[in-house]
Amino acid sequence: MSSDAHPALVLNADFQPLSYYPLSLWSWQDAIKAVFLDRVNIVAEYDLEVSSPSFSMSIPSVVSLKSYVKSSRNPAFTRFNLFLRDKFQCQYCGSPNDLTFDHVIPRSKGGLTTWENVCAACSPCNLRKGNKLPAEARMFPTRHPFVPTVYDLHHNGRKFPPNHLHESWMDFLYWDSELEP
Q1: ∠ at Cα 151 (94, 9), nearest 5°?
Q2: pLDDT in tens, 26-49
Q3: Cis omega before residue 124 (within 30°)?
Q4: φ and ψ at residue 8, rounded to 5 degrees
Q5: For residue 111, is pLDDT > 80?
Q6: How far apart are CA 151 and CA 136, in angstroms?
Q7: Left (φ > 0), alpha (ψ -120 to 50) or beta: where does 3 sit?
Q8: What is the 3-state secondary structure (H, E, C) of the chain?
Q9: Using 50, 70 and 90 to split pLDDT, how confident is the model at 104?
Q10: pLDDT-derived band of residue 89, with 50, 70 and 90 as boundaries?
Q11: Separation CA 113–CA 118 (nearest Å)
Q12: What's the pTM value of the predicted model, to 2 decimals?
């Protein structure tokens, strides 16, 4: 059996996923190890077992942590988190293609690489804006850049469900049916 087959959805002790994007999943081996270490409760199982000569166990499909893990309130400033904050869309034209990030106030004019000064931009818009201020380029982000919370990123992550969702996970996942403007 492949190690990436039959992953377990990992829920916090409050039965909320640890993360939506990427979805909090463990390999079936890690889920079984956590069961034996008494770190998780099994919430749902696959119709598949692993066994040894003296032991047999159903593979967990959903587990919940026994101890609540408090999430960080301030997500790390990463390229991925920036794109997730901006819903994987250029903040100038709305395109989801060829994303880069743009310093709203260019670095050459004192702009910093911070949440409040960087937004997702497609390459054509980024090249067109160049090192100009928004007023000089007549290009303004659709939303002013801001420091997102973990909640903001989880909320946006729900708009991009993964390709495979096991039916036993559905009671614990809440995906938005369409993208917000």
Answers
A1: 100
A2: 999 999 999 999 999 999 999 999
A3: no
A4: -105, 130
A5: yes
A6: 34
A7: alpha
A8: CCCCCCCEEEECCCCCECCECCECEECHHHHHHHHHCCCEEEEEEEEEEEEECCEEEEEEEEEEECCCCCCCCCCCCCHHHHHHHCCCCCCCCCCCCCEEEEECCCHHHCCCCCCCCEEEEEHHHHHHHCCCCHHHHCCCCCCCCCCCCHHHHHHHHCCCCCCCCCHHHHHHCCCCCCCCC
A9: very high
A10: very high
A11: 6
A12: 0.68
Both tokens of residue 10?
A: 């990992």
Q: Tokens for 109?
A: 């004019």
Give the integer Cα–Cα distance in Å for 42 and 21: 22
Question: For residue 140, what are the contacts with CB-CB under 8 A and spacing of at least 6?
Answer: 92, 134
Tokens representing 148?
Answer: 């997102």
Token pair of 158 as six digits: 């729900």
